[in-house]
Amino acid sequence: MSSLNKINEHADSVRQQKPQWAMFAWAAGFVLTGFFISLFIFDDVNVTNILMTRRLPLTAIGVIIMMAAYFTDFTILGKYPRSICFGVGLLLAVIYGLAGFGTSISILDMQFQLQVFALLLPVVFAPIIYISRNKRYLGLFGCLLTYGLLCLVTLSANQISGFVHFAIIGMSLLIIAVMKNWFGVNKGIGVALTLVPHIILFAAIVFAYGGSERLMAIINPHSDPMAFGFVGIQVRELLSNAVLVGEGTVPEIFPEAWMYSDFISLAIINRFGWLAFALVTGLLMFFIGQLIVRCMKQKSGLGFFVSIAVVLTLSVQIFLHIIFNMGFIFTQISLPLISPGNSAMLINMGLIGLMLSVFRTGDAVIDEINASDFLSWKDGKLIINFNFGGQMSRITHL
């Protein structure tokens, strides 16, 4: 290839890049919103000092992580999917092992909640699905096995919140893949094979951690007011005293649970009213909607699965956080970008940067014809592949 052709090819690639500054602005807006909300909510001077002296520097670090991920070639996830997935899973197993049954671990003088590390698993699981294209039931069972091993990693240190978060997303990714006919299996059978293990697993988890009593207390906290239902009762009482606009009243026995990261939505409702909560939630939903639209426009399978994995990671966090703050005390998790928790913020910002990297260069990446695809359709042309019999999807840059 001549130098001129190489220059033209590079120029075409650059033109196909789509800067995502608007999405960056949205993410930055949520981070700033969370910071100022925390300043107004926490009356304690010590808490305010912590926000100013630690939150701001960590936010700057988060921006650096997000920009680094944004300019990273996301296709590396498709080139070394097994190595990356195994490496991340092993790293988390080691971290959980070192922490024992604690709730956090200190890294570089920073406290990281163990459950937040599970946020990394969907984005390393998605490429495993990507390379399983047209491997039929063998590919599906391979994905289910990988998924099961990653679930065991989250449970190894009793991290129920991390497990629930990843379990929901992993199940969703597999069902999406089946419905897109990614594996080449019967859709009904594929969905059943995906759902049945989840039903059994979730039933085992529920009964291992309190059984029917805890499940009933989630729905009706008054069924066990002094144990599983205690926090739920307090949260619902606080919500009942909230007003549409302005500060609500606080029951005398309420243990100021909103001062923790996982109760930031409850704090917003109590201090600013239901309207403020609806505004913040509505903006988050709009942001998620914009991300989903961009995911659906991805031309490559890798770009689609990686970006939708990040969107699901954010969406499930929002969903679990809101139901927790509504008094359904099932599993606690912070609100992405807005909660004052620093460790989750850093990881979420990195994941958003990676997703925006997909949106930026996704149009310059295409899936090469899978060697197992005998017939394929591309750009209005029927392609017959006489190298039929291979196994692996590959990616290339335009």
Count, helices = 15
Please state the CA-atom Rg, rounded to the nearest Å.
23 Å
Domain count: 1
- What separation lies between the terminal Cα atoms? 15 Å
Total beta strand runs = 6
Descriptive labels:
398 residues, mainly alpha, two-stranded antiparallel sheet, two-stranded antiparallel ribbon, 6% strand, disordered N terminus
Short description:
By secondary structure, the protein is mainly alpha-helical. The protein contains 15 helices and 6 strands.
If you had to describe this structure to a student in words, what would you say it looks like?
The chain is globular. It has one domain (23-209, 241-370). It contains 15 helices and six strands. By secondary structure, it is mainly alpha-helical. The chain starts with a helix and ends with a strand. Helices cover 64% and strands 6% of the residues.
